Amino acid sequence: MRTRNMSDSFIYELPLQANPEQENVLRTRFGAGGHLYNGCLGEALRRLDLARQSQDWQKAKKLPRSKERTEYFQKAIKRYQCFKNGKIVWNKLTLKPLYDLKDKERVEAHALAHKTKYVRLVRRNLRGKPLFYAQLIQEGKSFLKKRHTIGKGKTIGLDIGPSTIAIVGEKTAALNSFCSELQENEKQIKTLQKALDRSRRATNPGNYDEKGIPLKNTAWKYSKRYFKKRQKLSEQKRVVAATRKTLHGTYANQLVSLADTIKTEKLSYQSFQKHFGKSVTQYAPGIFMQILRRKAENAGGQVIEFSPYDTKLSQTCHGCGEIKKKPLSQRWHRCSCGVEAQRDLYSAFLALHVDKESLDRTQAISAWASAGPLLQQTLSRLEQTAKGKQRLACFGLSQRQSYTPVEDGSAASEVRDDVPGTMRFRESFEELECLAIRTP
Q1: Considering just the CA atoms, what is the radius of gyration of the chain in Å?
Q2: Mean pLDDT of 151-169
Q3: What is the percent of the chain with per-residue pLDDT over 90, rounded to a whole number?
Q4: pLDDT grade, residue 300 (50/70/90)?
Q5: Which of 138, 213, 329, 336 is 20–30 Å from 70 (CA)?
Q6: DSSP for 302-353?
Q7: Domain-by-domain residue ranges, the chain?
Q8: Percent of the chain that is helix, strand, coil (3-state, to 5)
Q9: How far is 312 from 358, CA to CA, in rounded Å?
Q10: Which residues contact 211 (CB under 8 A, 6 or more apart)?
Q11: How far apart (Å, rounded) are the C-alpha atoms in residues 428 and 167?
Protein backbone atom coordinates (compact mmCIF):
# COMPACT_ATOMS: atom_id res chain seq x y z
CA MET A 1 0.00 0.00 0.00
CA ARG A 2 1.21 3.50 -0.80
CA THR A 3 1.84 5.28 2.50
CA ARG A 4 1.16 8.97 2.96
CA ASN A 5 4.22 11.21 3.20
CA MET A 6 3.85 13.26 6.39
CA SER A 7 6.89 15.50 5.81
CA ASP A 8 6.59 19.28 5.55
CA SER A 9 5.15 20.59 2.28
CA PHE A 10 4.69 23.91 0.53
CA ILE A 11 3.14 25.00 -2.76
CA TYR A 12 4.88 26.82 -5.59
CA GLU A 13 2.82 27.94 -8.57
CA LEU A 14 4.03 28.29 -12.16
CA PRO A 15 1.96 29.88 -14.96
CA LEU A 16 1.59 27.68 -18.04
CA GLN A 17 2.01 28.75 -21.66
CA ALA A 18 -0.99 27.34 -23.56
CA ASN A 19 -2.11 28.09 -27.14
CA PRO A 20 -5.86 28.25 -28.05
CA GLU A 21 -5.93 24.59 -29.06
CA GLN A 22 -4.37 23.52 -25.78
CA GLU A 23 -6.81 25.77 -23.86
CA ASN A 24 -9.75 23.97 -25.50
CA VAL A 25 -8.27 20.60 -24.57
CA LEU A 26 -7.72 21.75 -20.97
CA ARG A 27 -11.26 23.13 -20.67
CA THR A 28 -12.69 19.83 -21.91
CA ARG A 29 -10.54 17.81 -19.54
CA PHE A 30 -11.33 20.04 -16.57
CA GLY A 31 -15.05 19.56 -17.27
CA ALA A 32 -14.59 15.81 -17.58
CA GLY A 33 -12.39 15.89 -14.47
CA GLY A 34 -15.33 16.89 -12.29
CA HIS A 35 -17.34 13.89 -13.45
CA LEU A 36 -14.28 11.66 -13.16
CA TYR A 37 -13.62 12.84 -9.60
CA ASN A 38 -17.18 12.06 -8.51
CA GLY A 39 -17.02 8.65 -10.19
CA CYS A 40 -13.64 7.80 -8.64
CA LEU A 41 -14.78 8.97 -5.23
CA GLY A 42 -17.88 6.78 -5.38
CA GLU A 43 -15.84 3.79 -6.53
CA ALA A 44 -13.20 4.39 -3.83
CA LEU A 45 -15.85 4.53 -1.12
CA ARG A 46 -17.44 1.34 -2.46
CA ARG A 47 -14.08 -0.47 -2.38
CA LEU A 48 -13.36 0.84 1.10
CA ASP A 49 -16.64 -0.65 2.31
CA LEU A 50 -15.70 -3.98 0.72
CA ALA A 51 -12.28 -3.88 2.36
CA ARG A 52 -13.84 -3.21 5.78
CA GLN A 53 -16.18 -6.17 5.32
CA SER A 54 -13.35 -8.56 4.44
CA GLN A 55 -12.04 -11.22 6.84
CA ASP A 56 -8.55 -9.69 6.91
CA TRP A 57 -9.94 -6.34 8.06
CA GLN A 58 -12.10 -7.92 10.75
CA LYS A 59 -9.14 -10.00 11.94
CA ALA A 60 -6.92 -6.89 12.09
CA LYS A 61 -9.46 -4.99 14.20
CA LYS A 62 -9.25 -7.62 16.95
CA LEU A 63 -5.46 -7.50 17.15
CA PRO A 64 -3.50 -5.01 19.33
CA ARG A 65 -1.37 -2.41 17.60
CA SER A 66 1.48 -4.31 15.99
CA LYS A 67 3.24 -5.04 12.72
CA GLU A 68 0.97 -8.04 12.15
CA ARG A 69 -2.14 -5.84 12.54
CA THR A 70 -0.81 -3.36 9.96
CA GLU A 71 -0.04 -6.17 7.51
CA TYR A 72 -3.63 -7.45 7.72
CA PHE A 73 -4.99 -3.95 7.02
CA GLN A 74 -2.64 -3.55 4.05
CA LYS A 75 -3.63 -6.95 2.71
CA ALA A 76 -7.32 -6.06 2.87
CA ILE A 77 -6.80 -2.70 1.13
CA LYS A 78 -4.44 -4.08 -1.53
CA ARG A 79 -7.08 -6.56 -2.66
CA TYR A 80 -9.48 -3.76 -3.57
CA GLN A 81 -7.15 -0.91 -4.57
CA CYS A 82 -6.45 0.17 -8.20
CA PHE A 83 -3.74 2.81 -8.98
CA LYS A 84 -1.97 3.72 -12.19
CA ASN A 85 4.99 9.62 -13.36
CA GLY A 86 10.98 20.56 -17.05
CA LYS A 87 7.44 20.15 -18.77
CA ILE A 88 3.95 19.21 -17.66
CA VAL A 89 2.81 16.13 -19.54
CA TRP A 90 -0.82 14.99 -19.38
CA ASN A 91 -1.42 12.09 -21.77
CA LYS A 92 -0.55 13.54 -25.20
CA LEU A 93 -0.77 17.13 -23.97
CA THR A 94 2.60 18.79 -23.22
CA LEU A 95 2.58 22.17 -21.47
CA LYS A 96 5.54 24.48 -20.97
CA PRO A 97 5.79 26.34 -17.64
CA LEU A 98 6.78 30.01 -17.66
CA TYR A 99 9.76 30.29 -15.35
CA ASP A 100 10.86 33.49 -13.66
CA LEU A 101 14.23 34.04 -15.31
CA LYS A 102 15.12 36.98 -13.04
CA ASP A 103 14.00 35.45 -9.73
CA LYS A 104 15.65 38.27 -7.78
CA GLU A 105 14.79 36.90 -4.33
CA ARG A 106 15.57 33.27 -5.26
CA VAL A 107 12.06 32.09 -4.38
CA GLU A 108 11.67 29.94 -7.50
CA ALA A 109 15.18 28.51 -7.19
CA HIS A 110 14.40 27.46 -3.61
CA ALA A 111 11.13 25.80 -4.66
CA LEU A 112 12.54 23.91 -7.65
CA ALA A 113 15.51 22.66 -5.61
CA HIS A 114 13.13 20.59 -3.45
CA LYS A 115 11.56 17.25 -4.25
CA THR A 116 8.15 17.40 -5.95
CA LYS A 117 5.53 15.24 -4.25
CA TYR A 118 2.87 15.78 -6.91
CA VAL A 119 1.57 18.35 -9.39
CA ARG A 120 -1.93 19.68 -9.82
CA LEU A 121 -3.32 21.95 -12.52
CA VAL A 122 -5.38 25.00 -11.61
CA ARG A 123 -7.65 27.04 -13.87
CA ARG A 124 -8.41 30.70 -13.17
CA ASN A 125 -10.30 33.36 -15.09
CA LEU A 126 -8.49 36.71 -15.26
CA ARG A 127 -10.37 39.54 -17.01
CA GLY A 128 -12.59 37.00 -18.73
CA LYS A 129 -9.68 34.95 -20.07
CA PRO A 130 -8.89 31.47 -18.73
CA LEU A 131 -5.33 31.02 -17.46
CA PHE A 132 -3.78 27.76 -16.30
CA TYR A 133 -1.20 27.17 -13.60
CA ALA A 134 0.80 24.21 -12.33
CA GLN A 135 0.93 23.95 -8.56
CA LEU A 136 3.99 22.05 -7.42
CA ILE A 137 3.58 20.48 -3.99
CA GLN A 138 7.18 20.45 -2.80
CA GLU A 139 8.71 18.66 0.15
CA GLY A 140 10.16 20.94 2.81
CA LYS A 141 9.37 24.46 4.02
CA SER A 142 8.61 27.52 1.94
CA PHE A 143 11.23 30.19 1.33
CA LEU A 144 11.64 32.87 4.01
CA LYS A 145 12.64 36.15 2.40
CA LYS A 146 15.48 38.13 3.95
CA ARG A 147 13.29 41.17 4.59
CA HIS A 148 10.85 39.03 6.61
CA THR A 149 12.68 38.90 9.90
CA ILE A 150 11.26 37.41 13.10
CA GLY A 151 11.10 39.16 16.47
CA LYS A 152 13.05 36.58 18.44
CA GLY A 153 12.31 36.35 22.15
CA LYS A 154 9.38 38.79 21.94
CA THR A 155 5.66 38.25 22.59
CA ILE A 156 2.56 40.15 21.49
CA GLY A 157 -1.13 39.78 22.29
CA LEU A 158 -3.86 39.97 19.64
CA ASP A 159 -7.57 40.66 19.77
CA ILE A 160 -9.29 39.64 16.54
CA GLY A 161 -12.70 41.05 15.64
CA PRO A 162 -14.92 40.63 12.56
CA SER A 163 -13.30 43.67 10.93
CA THR A 164 -10.60 44.87 13.35
CA ILE A 165 -7.39 43.70 14.96
CA ALA A 166 -5.67 45.06 18.06
CA ILE A 167 -2.00 44.38 18.83
CA VAL A 168 -0.22 45.01 22.13
CA GLY A 169 3.37 44.14 23.03
CA GLU A 170 5.69 45.33 25.75
CA LYS A 171 6.63 48.41 23.72
CA THR A 172 4.20 48.16 20.79
CA ALA A 173 0.50 48.91 20.38
CA ALA A 174 -1.76 49.25 17.33
CA LEU A 175 -5.45 49.23 16.46
CA ASN A 176 -6.27 48.53 12.81
CA SER A 177 -9.17 47.70 10.55
CA PHE A 178 -8.82 44.72 8.24
CA CYS A 179 -8.20 45.40 4.54
CA SER A 180 -9.55 48.95 4.31
CA GLU A 181 -8.15 49.05 0.75
CA LEU A 182 -11.07 46.85 -0.33
CA GLN A 183 -13.76 49.42 0.46
CA GLU A 184 -13.68 50.93 -3.04
CA ASN A 185 -13.92 47.48 -4.64
CA GLU A 186 -16.89 46.64 -2.42
CA LYS A 187 -18.69 49.77 -3.64
CA GLN A 188 -18.15 48.69 -7.25
CA ILE A 189 -19.44 45.19 -6.46
CA LYS A 190 -22.62 46.60 -4.86
CA THR A 191 -23.18 48.86 -7.89
CA LEU A 192 -22.86 45.90 -10.27
CA GLN A 193 -25.16 43.73 -8.16
CA LYS A 194 -27.85 46.42 -8.24
CA ALA A 195 -27.43 46.76 -12.01
CA LEU A 196 -27.84 42.99 -12.46
CA ASP A 197 -30.99 43.00 -10.34
CA ARG A 198 -32.49 45.84 -12.41
CA SER A 199 -31.63 43.96 -15.61
CA ARG A 200 -33.30 40.75 -14.37
CA ARG A 201 -36.44 42.62 -13.39
CA ALA A 202 -36.62 44.48 -16.72
CA THR A 203 -36.12 41.29 -18.75
CA ASN A 204 -38.43 39.10 -16.63
CA PRO A 205 -41.27 41.34 -15.37
CA GLY A 206 -43.64 38.37 -15.00
CA ASN A 207 -41.33 36.46 -12.65
CA TYR A 208 -42.08 38.69 -9.62
CA ASP A 209 -45.18 39.04 -7.46
CA GLU A 210 -46.79 42.38 -6.56
CA LYS A 211 -44.32 42.79 -3.67
CA GLY A 212 -41.34 42.34 -5.99
CA ILE A 213 -40.39 38.91 -4.62
CA PRO A 214 -39.14 36.38 -7.26
CA LEU A 215 -41.56 33.54 -8.03
CA LYS A 216 -40.44 29.94 -7.77
CA ASN A 217 -40.18 27.46 -10.66
CA THR A 218 -40.04 30.10 -13.37
CA ALA A 219 -37.90 30.34 -16.52
CA TRP A 220 -35.48 33.26 -16.67
CA LYS A 221 -34.19 35.22 -19.65
CA TYR A 222 -31.03 37.29 -19.66
CA SER A 223 -29.77 39.99 -22.02
CA LYS A 224 -26.27 40.17 -23.50
CA ARG A 225 -25.52 43.18 -21.31
CA TYR A 226 -26.47 41.11 -18.29
CA PHE A 227 -23.84 38.47 -19.12
CA LYS A 228 -21.20 41.18 -19.64
CA LYS A 229 -22.01 42.75 -16.28
CA ARG A 230 -21.99 39.35 -14.59
CA GLN A 231 -18.55 38.66 -16.04
CA LYS A 232 -17.40 42.06 -14.77
CA LEU A 233 -18.80 41.25 -11.32
CA SER A 234 -16.94 37.93 -11.30
CA GLU A 235 -13.71 39.74 -12.13
CA GLN A 236 -14.27 42.27 -9.35
CA LYS A 237 -14.80 39.47 -6.81
CA ARG A 238 -11.62 37.77 -8.00
CA VAL A 239 -9.67 41.02 -7.57
CA VAL A 240 -11.09 41.45 -4.05
CA ALA A 241 -10.14 37.89 -3.06
CA ALA A 242 -6.61 38.20 -4.48
CA THR A 243 -6.05 41.62 -2.88
CA ARG A 244 -7.38 40.43 0.48
CA LYS A 245 -5.06 37.42 0.43
CA THR A 246 -2.08 39.66 -0.36
CA LEU A 247 -2.98 42.09 2.44
CA HIS A 248 -3.43 39.25 4.93
CA GLY A 249 -0.05 37.82 3.99
CA THR A 250 1.66 41.21 4.28
CA TYR A 251 0.18 41.91 7.68
CA ALA A 252 0.97 38.42 8.95
CA ASN A 253 4.62 38.98 7.97
CA GLN A 254 4.58 42.25 9.89
CA LEU A 255 3.25 40.58 13.03
CA VAL A 256 5.82 37.78 12.82
CA SER A 257 8.55 40.44 12.52
CA LEU A 258 7.34 41.93 15.82
CA ALA A 259 7.40 38.71 17.86
CA ASP A 260 8.02 34.98 17.64
CA THR A 261 5.22 34.23 20.12
CA ILE A 262 1.72 35.51 19.37
CA LYS A 263 -1.08 35.01 21.90
CA THR A 264 -4.77 35.29 21.05
CA GLU A 265 -8.16 33.79 21.82
CA LYS A 266 -9.25 30.69 19.92
CA LEU A 267 -12.42 32.02 18.30
CA SER A 268 -15.22 30.31 16.42
CA TYR A 269 -15.25 32.00 13.02
CA GLN A 270 -18.40 30.08 12.10
CA SER A 271 -20.09 31.95 14.95
CA PHE A 272 -18.62 35.18 13.55
CA GLN A 273 -20.22 34.30 10.21
CA LYS A 274 -23.65 33.94 11.81
CA HIS A 275 -23.55 37.23 13.70
CA PHE A 276 -21.34 39.41 11.45
CA GLY A 277 -21.90 37.90 8.01
CA LYS A 278 -21.03 40.93 5.87
CA SER A 279 -17.89 41.86 7.79
CA VAL A 280 -16.58 38.28 7.89
CA THR A 281 -17.25 37.80 4.17
CA GLN A 282 -15.44 41.02 3.33
CA TYR A 283 -12.46 40.79 5.70
CA ALA A 284 -12.10 37.01 6.31
CA PRO A 285 -10.47 37.04 9.78
CA GLY A 286 -10.46 33.23 9.85
CA ILE A 287 -8.32 33.05 6.70
CA PHE A 288 -5.99 35.66 8.19
CA MET A 289 -5.46 33.46 11.24
CA GLN A 290 -4.67 30.45 9.03
CA ILE A 291 -2.04 32.48 7.17
CA LEU A 292 -0.62 33.83 10.43
CA ARG A 293 -0.26 30.33 11.94
CA ARG A 294 1.48 29.02 8.82
CA LYS A 295 3.89 31.96 8.52
CA ALA A 296 4.74 31.95 12.23
CA GLU A 297 5.48 28.21 12.18
CA ASN A 298 7.54 28.50 9.00
CA ALA A 299 9.63 31.29 10.59
CA GLY A 300 10.23 29.26 13.75
CA GLY A 301 7.63 31.06 15.86
CA GLN A 302 4.27 30.01 17.30
CA VAL A 303 0.69 31.21 17.68
CA ILE A 304 -0.72 30.30 21.09
CA GLU A 305 -4.54 30.19 21.18
CA PHE A 306 -6.50 29.86 24.40
CA SER A 307 -10.16 29.43 25.29
CA PRO A 308 -12.16 32.68 25.58
CA TYR A 309 -14.60 30.88 27.89
CA ASP A 310 -11.87 30.21 30.45
CA THR A 311 -10.07 33.56 30.27
CA LYS A 312 -13.05 35.92 29.66
CA LEU A 313 -10.70 38.73 28.63
CA SER A 314 -13.43 41.07 27.36
CA GLN A 315 -15.23 40.83 30.74
CA THR A 316 -12.27 40.89 33.13
CA CYS A 317 -10.59 43.79 34.90
CA HIS A 318 -7.00 43.00 35.83
CA GLY A 319 -6.92 45.74 38.46
CA CYS A 320 -9.60 44.38 40.80
CA GLY A 321 -10.27 40.98 39.24
CA GLU A 322 -13.97 41.75 38.66
CA ILE A 323 -15.69 39.87 35.81
CA LYS A 324 -18.57 41.79 34.27
CA LYS A 325 -20.35 41.18 30.99
CA LYS A 326 -20.39 44.02 28.46
CA PRO A 327 -22.66 44.42 25.43
CA LEU A 328 -20.88 44.46 22.07
CA SER A 329 -21.87 48.08 21.58
CA GLN A 330 -19.76 49.06 24.61
CA ARG A 331 -16.32 49.63 23.14
CA TRP A 332 -14.62 50.88 26.29
CA HIS A 333 -13.57 49.14 29.49
CA ARG A 334 -14.17 51.36 32.52
CA CYS A 335 -13.87 50.05 36.07
CA SER A 336 -14.41 51.65 39.46
CA CYS A 337 -10.82 50.70 40.35
CA GLY A 338 -9.61 53.30 37.86
CA VAL A 339 -8.69 51.12 34.85
CA GLU A 340 -9.92 52.66 31.60
CA ALA A 341 -9.01 51.56 28.06
CA GLN A 342 -10.40 50.92 24.60
CA ARG A 343 -11.95 47.45 24.70
CA ASP A 344 -10.05 45.79 21.83
CA LEU A 345 -6.67 47.14 22.89
CA TYR A 346 -7.36 46.16 26.48
CA SER A 347 -8.23 42.58 25.48
CA ALA A 348 -5.01 42.38 23.46
CA PHE A 349 -3.09 43.65 26.51
CA LEU A 350 -4.67 40.96 28.71
CA ALA A 351 -3.96 38.28 26.06
CA LEU A 352 -0.28 39.19 26.33
CA HIS A 353 -0.38 38.10 29.99
CA VAL A 354 -2.31 34.83 29.63
CA ASP A 355 -0.35 31.80 30.79
CA LYS A 356 -1.65 28.23 30.65
CA GLU A 357 -5.28 29.15 29.88
CA SER A 358 -5.54 31.73 32.70
CA LEU A 359 -4.80 35.42 33.13
CA ASP A 360 -1.71 36.20 35.22
CA ARG A 361 -3.08 39.24 37.09
CA THR A 362 0.14 39.86 38.98
CA GLN A 363 2.04 40.17 35.72
CA ALA A 364 -0.68 42.34 34.16
CA ILE A 365 -0.76 44.73 37.14
CA SER A 366 3.01 45.12 36.97
CA ALA A 367 2.93 45.83 33.21
CA TRP A 368 -0.03 48.25 33.30
CA ALA A 369 2.09 51.17 34.59
CA SER A 370 3.77 51.44 31.17
CA ALA A 371 1.03 49.80 29.03
CA GLY A 372 -1.76 52.19 30.13
CA PRO A 373 -0.07 55.36 28.79
CA LEU A 374 1.03 53.42 25.69
CA LEU A 375 -2.59 52.53 24.84
CA GLN A 376 -3.70 56.13 25.45
CA GLN A 377 -0.99 57.41 23.14
CA THR A 378 -2.04 54.92 20.46
CA LEU A 379 -5.64 56.15 20.60
CA SER A 380 -4.56 59.78 20.60
CA ARG A 381 -2.63 59.22 17.37
CA LEU A 382 -5.54 57.24 15.93
CA GLU A 383 -8.01 60.04 16.64
CA GLN A 384 -5.79 62.48 14.78
CA THR A 385 -5.75 60.31 11.64
CA ALA A 386 -9.29 58.85 11.84
CA LYS A 387 -11.55 59.84 8.95
CA GLY A 388 -15.25 59.12 8.58
CA LYS A 389 -17.93 58.13 11.07
CA GLN A 390 -17.66 54.44 10.16
CA ARG A 391 -14.20 54.03 11.65
CA LEU A 392 -15.11 56.07 14.73
CA ALA A 393 -18.06 53.76 15.40
CA CYS A 394 -15.99 50.65 14.70
CA PHE A 395 -13.23 51.57 17.15
CA GLY A 396 -15.52 53.21 19.68
CA LEU A 397 -13.66 56.52 19.63
CA SER A 398 -16.96 58.40 19.73
CA GLN A 399 -17.68 56.74 23.12
CA ARG A 400 -14.55 58.18 24.64
CA GLN A 401 -15.75 60.54 27.36
CA SER A 402 -12.47 61.63 28.85
CA TYR A 403 -8.82 61.58 28.01
CA THR A 404 -6.05 62.76 30.28
CA PRO A 405 -3.14 64.22 28.30
CA VAL A 406 0.25 62.70 29.04
CA GLU A 407 2.53 65.02 30.91
CA ASP A 408 6.00 65.84 29.64
CA GLY A 409 8.67 63.69 31.19
CA SER A 410 6.40 60.69 31.76
CA ALA A 411 6.98 57.33 30.15
CA ALA A 412 4.25 57.88 27.58
CA SER A 413 5.63 61.23 26.46
CA GLU A 414 8.66 59.35 25.15
CA VAL A 415 6.52 57.11 22.97
CA ARG A 416 7.34 57.67 19.34
CA ASP A 417 6.34 56.22 15.99
CA ASP A 418 9.53 54.75 14.55
CA VAL A 419 8.04 51.80 12.66
CA PRO A 420 9.09 51.59 9.00
CA GLY A 421 6.55 52.04 6.24
CA THR A 422 6.23 48.31 5.65
CA MET A 423 4.72 48.01 9.14
CA ARG A 424 1.59 49.95 8.19
CA PHE A 425 -1.71 49.21 6.54
CA ARG A 426 -2.74 51.83 4.00
CA GLU A 427 -6.24 53.25 3.55
CA SER A 428 -5.06 54.09 0.05
CA PHE A 429 -1.61 53.54 -1.36
CA GLU A 430 -0.76 57.14 -0.46
CA GLU A 431 -2.25 57.45 3.05
CA LEU A 432 -1.09 55.53 6.12
CA GLU A 433 -3.72 53.94 8.32
CA CYS A 434 -2.05 51.52 10.73
CA LEU A 435 -0.54 52.89 13.89
CA ALA A 436 2.30 50.99 15.48
CA ILE A 437 3.71 52.81 18.51
CA ARG A 438 6.99 51.85 20.15
CA THR A 439 8.89 53.18 23.11
CA PRO A 440 12.68 53.48 22.88
Answers
A1: 27
A2: 88
A3: 11
A4: confident
A5: 138
A6: EEEEE-HHHH-GGGB-TTT--B----TT--EEE-TTS-EEEHHHHHHHHHHT
A7: 9-84+86-139, 155-438
A8: 50, 20, 35
A9: 9
A10: none
A11: 21
